[in-house]
């Protein structure tokens, strides 16, 4: 299933959304924007066609819901990850873990006993 990059029209915040082509076409307005929870997001074609990342599909830094924490735990997990030797930042609004690279992500997941069945062979 393809992903589509969007940029918040007001704040400039970026997000990627996985959805089918049919779903994207159904949700998109004529100017290719979508509305999520009352907020307008403009399609960011430039980041979807990032020529600096032709070797893979991930864009770094990468935000992870699965490795994230509750927003009230962000400060505690920042400290804990730093103490464990894998300093990791978290989005204060969503609690998502923010990984800087494939190896950073792999080290964090290993440190916290997490496993990604779909992870790449060259991670780590």
Give a verbal description of the structure.
With 124 residues, the chain is of the alpha+beta class. It folds into 2 domains: 3-53, no CATH class; 62-111, no CATH class. Helices cover 25% and strands 22% of the residues. It has helices at 21-27, 45-48, 74-83, 102-111, and strands spanning 3-8, 14-18, 34-36, 39-43, 62-64, 89-90, 97-99. The chain has a 4-stranded antiparallel beta sheet. It has a 3-stranded antiparallel beta sheet with strand order 5-7-6. The protein is elongated. The two termini are 25 Å apart. The mean pLDDT is 84.
In short:
This protein is α+β, with helices and mostly antiparallel strands.
Q: Mean pLDDT across all residues, rounded?
A: 84
Order of strands in the sheet with most strands: 2-1-4-3
Number of strands: 7
The number of domains is 2
Helical coverage, percent range:
25-40%
Specify the number of helices: 4
How far from one another are the termini?
25 Å
Summarize the helices and strands and which ones pair or pack:
Blueprint: E1 3-8, E2 14-18, H1 21-27, E3 34-36, E4 39-43, H2 45-48, E5 62-64, H3 74-83, E6 89-90, E7 97-99, H4 102-111
Antiparallel strand pairs: 1-2, 1-4, 3-4, 5-7, 6-7
């Amino acid at each position: 299933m393809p992903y589509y990059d969007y940029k918040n029209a007001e704040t400039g915040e970026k997000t990627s959304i996985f959805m089918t082509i049919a779903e994207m076409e159904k949700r998109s307005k004529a100017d290719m924007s979508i509305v999520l929870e009352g907020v307008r997001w403009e399609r960011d074609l430039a980041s979807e066609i990032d020529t600096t990342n032709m070797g893979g599909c991930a864009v770094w830094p990468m935000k992870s819901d699965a490795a994230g924490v509750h927003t009230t735990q962000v400060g505690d997990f920042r400290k804990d990850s730093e103490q464990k030797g894998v300093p990791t930042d978290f989005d204060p609004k969503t609690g998502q873990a923010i990984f800087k690279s494939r190896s950073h992500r792999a080290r964090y997941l290993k440190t916290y006993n997490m496993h990604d069945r779909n992870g790449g062979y060259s991670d780590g």
